[in-house]
Amino acid sequence: MISYLSPAEVIAHKGLRLVSVQGVPSPWAQAAKTIFEIKGLDFVMAQLIVAGTNEEIVAWSGQNSGPVVAWQDEAPINKWVDILYLAERLAPEPALIPEEARDRATMFGLSNELFGEFGIGWNRRLQIFDALMDPSQPREFQEVVTILGRKYRYNKKDTEAAPAKLVDSLGLFKTQLENQRASGSSFLVGDRLSAVDIYFVAVMNLVAPLPKEKCPLPDGLRPFYVAADPDIVTLLSPILLDHRDRIFEAYFRAPMEF
Q: Bridge-partner residues for 77, per DSSP?
């Protein structure tokens, strides 16, 4: 079990540190943690309070979002691609960025489809915000999501466009896995694990969460993390769910801790 330090302790630490989001399986934070663990990197962790002011973390990093990662005296970083490059620099093996240019370009393109603006993670977050803002939901949900919605540019136009974008993106991953299986590979790119396999598992918790014993989401939140749009549900074919399950079992801490 992870022992979390206080923000002040993490800021003062001289090694590798990670600030994750408290109480929810943030794909970006879960992926960063898992990458560090796969690479055998020692790191310490603190938690960021959802919709809180988090003054110490903001003053140190300039961010009120997780994850935040820092190494020694280097400036804190928070973008998924910067975190990946730092991990590769600190522990080149096992490499999670493919060596060949074509595979590398494919991996980063697919990763952006998961973690970039208006990718799967972004669009599912919009849908979750929209559901939690419903007047029938508890006031505390609405208050928290109102704060988060301003931060992440929640709006009705983008939310209404999200289902079609999600169908398009999930269809891309289904086709990629089918092609990889046909070529004899059990990974999304090339013939070995890469960062995009980790990102895929992390993001799928916003679409089709792992069971409670593996991803212990609070009971009150779990229904909002399950994509309900019929077209999205139809796309959740066995090949997508099987890849999620296999990569999780092989490379993730079970159960997830957040």
A: 69
First to last CA, the chain: 10
User: Average per-residue pLDDT in the chain?
Assistant: 96
Cα–Cα dist 27/32, whole Å: 9
Cβ neighbour number for residue 114 with a 10 Å cutoff: 26
pLDDT tens sequence across 50-87? 989 999 999 999 999 999 999 999 999 999 999 999 99
Cross-strand partners of 68: 19
Whether a cis peptide bond, with omega within 30° of 0, leads into 94 is yes
Q: Where are the alpha helices (DSSP H) in the chain?
A: 7-12, 27-38, 55-61, 80-90, 101-115, 120-132, 139-151, 156-182, 195-204, 222-225, 230-235, 238-251
Query: Taking the model in full, what pTM does it have?
Result: 0.96
